[in-house]
Amino acid sequence: MILCCGEALIDMLPRTTAAGEVAFAPYAGGAVMNTAIALGRLGASSGYFGGVSNDLFGQILAETLTASKVDHSLCPRSDKPTTLAFVTLVDGHAKYAFYDENTAGRLLAPEDLPNLTDTIKALFFGGISLVGEPAADTYAALCAQADDRVIMIDPNIRPGFITDEARYRARLDTMLCRADIVKISDEDMDWLGTTPEALLKNGCALVLVTRGVDGVDVVSREGTQRVAAHKVTVVDTVGAGDTFNAGFLAGLDRAGLLSREKLAAAWLADLTDAAELGVQAAAITVSRAGANPPWSTEL
Known about the structure:
- With 299 residues, the chain is α/β, with parallel strands linked by helices.
- It is 33% helix and 25% strand.
- It has helices at 31-41, 56-67, 135-144, 165-178, 186-192, 196-201, 240-254, 260-265, 268-286; strands at 2-5, 9-16, 22-29, 46-49, 52-53, 70-71, 77-78, 84-90, 93-99, 122-126, 150-154, 181-185, 206-210, 216-220, 223-227.
- The strands form three sheets. The chain has a nine-stranded mixed sheet, sandwiched between helices.
- Helix 1 packs across helix 7 (240-254), helix 3 runs parallel beside helix 4 and helix 7 (240-254) runs antiparallel to helix 9 (268-286).
- It is globular and about 60 Å long.
């Protein structure tokens, strides 16, 4: 199993009723949850770990995970509310209002951590779940307890969410030093003051540098290989990076490379095959509305 650890929330998307009234419709979302769903749809053994509420919205999250064949049995359930993100459009650009205080996801505590069984081969971390305490510290603790399992991190840094920069930097630096795979953008690297070479020197087996419409660079100690993006008509880019993450991990799993030893010894060509699956899956996601990753039968 590949266990995705981080945020799951409800995006409240703007709609208009038949009477012309402004309304909001609830949709399951969150970067880490999107990755778990994409993994399940691509046929990988996928699991999700995060705090999930027993409320109406928590039921939507659980049902959405189940529908995409994601095991969420390790999730601690509570009567705390679900995180909500209300989305409004201003001049065509999305603005978010988050309601995250005292939620089931935000208050995830170390005592909620699961026992990692031998069936769990890899753990994925990322997104805004690495920002807000106490959950962020809980995820960092889980990363530290991963033993010899593969760790992938997509920091996807959102400076506007960060309230304690020094603490966030320290937490993220520690997790990145443990990571085997890091997916990162130019903006992330600028904010962190790092490079793919520095990340490799700190112990990563490979770094995936996203280049937007130009694709992704797969960087290992062997060198760098560009995997081109697929040309499609873009409807929106919601969930594109999350789907790529899932495709890459699913590709490694299919190739039998989802172990730290095999990753460290893998040839660049083997790694770019996995990246190609990620690019292909992400292209389908951006060609339709919302975070709607493809099933394996669509590839």
